[in-house]
């Protein structure tokens, strides 16, 4: 059987877990992960959780790590033989992770993350496991953490949103993906501060993740772009400066005749966020509809916020792609870092809420479609 759970492996960082984690892992399963870092670097492995049913010599369920370059092995580990420290520093750029189970009754399984010696993390939580709760982070005003790839799918909750910050009991690197400071498929260094908590943390849907509405906490997390600026105490807004749109265009627009026989034009110019009344809508039945924005000059674009129209209609866009252009004639699809396919952004699920999606890396263009 397949004992592999949530897994995301990249050359510089990653996260892996047993199947069903944090629920009980299945009987009679096996999984093998091969971690490979760039030549000249070494792997640092952080044990987030090793909860395998105890047995003599860890014979029934076990975790074993093999370092073929050094000819050494670590483990086997289980509940009665856990790793001596939560962070394992190897001298190798290649490590094989083996997980096996036989019949058992209990155990959450395992959660493991890794980074390379190029990105060891500073002030990580706890001691290298950067998907853990932020309440375990150092009690520093401002600190930096290296988040491995793959924390988006880790079990655990986040409370808050990019503009107001996050409850300090949130899963730290999962919150960083929600805030749009890192891409889940890449991971990366994040800079954040812990400040006085607030009464209510409002929920939001951003970058494919839902946060929860949370109550008062003593501390909150604020993410920052760049590293250790003098203004590190300032919160990161949902996006930086809101870009002014010089002109809107669309593939089509809806000419509505309402119940009273009055005309209502759902034209492209009504697409700006915050426009009172109805918004833009494509002609009903049209395929491959698009909305185009001319920013007037080339700008750096770090994200987008979308919202539906609740003016008598429950209209919203559930998913979309983005293209960009410097001249309005030659268009390039947005794919993200290293991706081979056009990125599909997860949009709205109702006509009322706002949804934020980050562009990592940012787009440099005049026209967005």
Automatic annotation (TrEMBL):
**S-S bridge residues:** 4-31
Top-level taxon of the source organism: Eukaryota
State if Transmembrane is listed as a keyword. Answer: yes
Instruction: Name all CUB domain ranges.
Output: 4-117
One of its Pfam families is LCCL
Q: How does it sit in the membrane?
A: Single-pass type I membrane protein
Kindly indicate whether the keyword Transmembrane helix belongs to this entry.
Answer: yes
Question: Which residues are in the F5/8 type C domain?
Answer: 232-369
Q: Tell me which InterPro entries the record gives.
A: CUB_dom, FA58C, Galactose-bd-like_sf, LCCL, LCCL_sf, Neuropilin_MCO_CoagFactor, Sperma_CUB_dom_sf
Q: Where in the cell is it found?
A: Membrane
Example of a GO cellular component annotation carried by this entry: plasma membrane
UniProt-recorded Gene Ontology molecular function terms: signaling receptor activity
Which intervals hold domain LCCL? 145-221
Keyword terms: Disulfide bond, Membrane, Phosphoprotein, Transmembrane, Transmembrane helix
Name of the protein in its database record: DCBD1 protein
GN (gene name): Dcbld1
């Amino acid at each position: 059987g397949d004992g592999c759970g949530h897994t995301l492996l990249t050359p510089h960082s990653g996260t892996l877990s047993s199947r069903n984690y944090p629920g009980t892992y299945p009987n009679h399963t096996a999984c093998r992960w091969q971690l490979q870092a760039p030549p000249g670097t070494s792997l640092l492995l952080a044990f987030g959780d090793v909860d395998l049913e105890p047995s003599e010599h860890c014979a029934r369920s076990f975790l074993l790590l093999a370092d073929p370059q050094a000819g050494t092995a670590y483990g086997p580990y289980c509940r009665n033989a856990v790793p001596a420290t939560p962070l394992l520093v190897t001298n190798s750029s290649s490590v094989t992770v083996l997980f096996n189970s036989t019949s058992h009754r209990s155990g959450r399984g395992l959660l493991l993350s890794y980074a390379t010696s190029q990105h060891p993390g500073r002030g990580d939580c706890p001691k290298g496991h950067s998907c853990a709760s932020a309440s375990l982070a150092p009690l520093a005003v401002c600190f930096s953490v290296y988040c491995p790839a793959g924390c988006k799918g880790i079990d655990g909750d986040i409370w808050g949103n990019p503009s107001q910050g996050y409850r300090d009991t949130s899963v730290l690197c999962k919150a960083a993906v929600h805030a749009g400071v890192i891409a889940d498929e890449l991971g990366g260094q994040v800079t954040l501060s812990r400040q006085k908590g607030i009464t209510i943390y409002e929920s939001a849907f951003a970058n494919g993740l839902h946060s929860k509405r949370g109550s008062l906490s003593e501390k909150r997390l604020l993410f920052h772009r760049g590293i250790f600026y003098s203004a590190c105490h300032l919160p990161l807004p949902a996006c930086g400066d809101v870009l002014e749109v010089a002109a809107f265009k669309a593939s089509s627009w809806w000419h509505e005749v309402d119940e009273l026989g009055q005309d209502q034009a759902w034209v492209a110019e009504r697409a700006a966020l915050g426009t009172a009344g109805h918004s833009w809508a494509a002609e009903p039945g049209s395929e491959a509809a698009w909305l185009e924005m001319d920013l007037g000059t080339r700008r750096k674009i770090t994200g987008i916020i979308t919202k539906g129209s609740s003016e008598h209609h429950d209209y919203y866009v559930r998913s979309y792609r983005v293209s960009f252009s410097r001249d309005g004639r030659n268009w390039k699809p947005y794919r993200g870092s290293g991706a081979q396919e056009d990125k599909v952004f997860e949009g709205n699920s109702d006509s009322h809420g706002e949804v934020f999606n980050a562009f990592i890396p940012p787009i440099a263009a005049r026209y967005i479609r």
